[in-house]
């Protein structure tokens, strides 16, 4: 019995890679890189929006 939801997620990820732990780690690293890139784009958009709003306030 799996008590921790993280354990269930890990089991599911490893199972989706046919039990290949190295493949599961590689997939997670790629997903993490993608999410980090999206986050950087979000931060840039927020900074640009904040700068644009600041121009109109003066």
From TrEMBL:
Q: This protein is called what? A: Uncharacterized protein
């Amino acid at each position: 019995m799996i008590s921790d939801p993280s354990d269930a997620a890990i089991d599911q990820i490893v199972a989706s890679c046919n039990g290949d732990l190295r493949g599961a780690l590689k997939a997670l690293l790629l997903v993490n890189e993608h999410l980090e890139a999206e986050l950087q784009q979000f931060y840039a958009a927020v900074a640009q929006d904040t700068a644009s709003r600041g121009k109109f306030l003066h």
